[in-house]
Amino acid sequence: MAVPQLVAGSGVFAAFCAFALVSSITPGPNNTMVLASGVNFGFARTVPHVLGISIGFGLMVAVVGLGLGSLFAAFPWTWQVLRVVAVAYLTWLAWKLATAGGVQDREVGKPMGFLAAAAFQWVNPKAWVMAVGACSTYVLHGNVWLNVLLLSGLFAVINLPSVAMWAVFGSAMRRWLAQPRVLRMFNVGMALLLLASLWPIVGARP
């Protein structure tokens, strides 16, 4: 009887889990960067990046659920500022990825770390849309604090394997991208996808 007391019906719980899975596993800035990191640095060196995304996003959901999301409703201009900063930062990341060195440089290069990946969530438009959408749509518990805890915890748990899958896939591709020219073409392609991932979300409103 513990679970029915914690969640507002199995249907809502299942719907939220499906939302978290689909939004976490589909292409976006995080998954594009993790895929590229898996190719360039391997899975083991990408693990801090993956953990930073999942834990950082879980904390972001908690903060949004506790009231930060209402800031956008009270001051709409803050969302416009976020979009400008996000576009500028992601454009810079895309440039860095497109101009990354060849295979001889990727073993000594530096992948994104835990703290940087966690901080990146705050300028990731898709992460904002996911967090605000989840907190404004799903109620798993009548108590605000417990509801936020459930939402953020479940999102982090579901997000982790979803993002890690992209790193595993990227790592598996390393052998086919050993030639510097092929790797450079791959990085340029990932940079373009990173920029393309902004298109459907820069016009969204939380």
From TrEMBL:
It holds the Pfam family LysE. Its main location: membrane. This is Transporter, LysE family. GO terms for cellular component: plasma membrane. It is found in: Cell membrane. Keywords: Cell membrane, Membrane, Transmembrane, Transmembrane helix. The chain crosses the membrane at residues 48-74, 81-98, 148-170, 182-202. The keyword Transmembrane helix applies. The keyword Glycoprotein does not apply. InterPro entries: LeuE-type (IPR001123). Coiled coil: none annotated. It comes from Cupriavidus basilensis. It is a multi-pass membrane protein. GO terms for molecular function: amino acid transmembrane transporter activity.
